[in-house]
Design goal:
By secondary structure, this protein is mainly α. The chain has ten helices and no strands. The protein has one domain: MetI-like (MetI-like fold, Orthogonal Bundle), CATH 1.10.3720.10. Helix 4 packs across helix 5 (95-121). It is flat and about 70 Å long. The model has no long low-confidence stretch (mean pLDDT 87).
Length: 225
């Protein structure tokens, strides 16, 4: 059995690296989107607040796989049309970029809910103190609100990253050879699906365990700050 599966180990590791890479790239983007949408949903401007609420409700209500398909096929149509008008050849959207965009946009709505809740309970005295010493609203948000919210939301964001890590397997549906797709290919080649998927499960658990340790370190630092 080992002799049969060993030659595919590098293929597995590449898939695992791509899975981790997709999540590692999408997660910071989803944090930025979450902060922006969180602030928007609490804005005193009604149109801005409605936009924030609409973004959250729309992407929280859509299945992840549908968002991935819409981003991937939509970008192909859009970029193909632009290239056609410019007289250029278009080879198709990169599925990895489309997957990162879809995951970032969707999980940005989940992050926005987390940040919005923490922003709502943040004592107004912090912002008032910043305003009293002459800070602008942008400076108050950047130097006071965002650091406090990120520190408070660390446990929830750590859990969100683990969910993102698992959902990234859906990128295989648009041709991204991440861990689950690599495992499917190896299982078809070796005709040992049970063993192959058990190995993939161990890899997912290893990545999750490492992520959990990092999350624990961050939580400890946040509590000690």
């Amino acid at each position: 059995m080992i002799e049969i599966l060993a030659p595919y180990m590098s293929f597995w590791l590449k898939g695992a690296a791509l899975t981790l890479g997709l999540s590692a790239v999408a997660f910071p983007i989803c944090i930025l989107i979450g902060l922006a949408v969180g602030f928007a949903s609490l804005s005193s401007s009604r149109p801005t607040a409605l936009f924030g609420a609409a973004y959250i409700n729309m992407f929280r209500g859509l299945p992840e796989v549908m968002v991935i398909f819409i981003i991937f096929y939509g970008s192909n149509i859009l970029l193909g049309s632009v290239a056609s008008l410019a007289g250029l050849r278009f080879g198709g959207a990169d599925p990895k970029i489309a997957a990162v965009a879809a995951l970032s946009i969707q999980f940005g709505s989940y992050a926005a809910v987390i940040f919005k809740d923490w922003m709502s309970v943040l004592p107004k005295g912090y912002s008032e103190a910043g305003a009293a010493i002459g800070m602008t609203r942008f400076q108050i948000r950047r130097r006071i609100v965002v650091p406090l919210v990120l520190r408070s939301a660390t446990p929830a964001m750590g859990n969100l990253f683990l969910v993102l890590l698992k959902i990234s397997a859906l990128a295989s549906l648009i041709g991204v050879q991440e861990l689950s797709r690599s495992t499917s290919i190896i299982a078809g080649s070796t005709r040992e699906p049970l063993i192959c998927y058990m190995i993939a499960a161990v890899m997912y658990l290893a990545i999750s365990a490492i992520s959990g340790l990092i999350q624990h370190r961050l939580e400890s630092r946040a509590q000690g700050a």
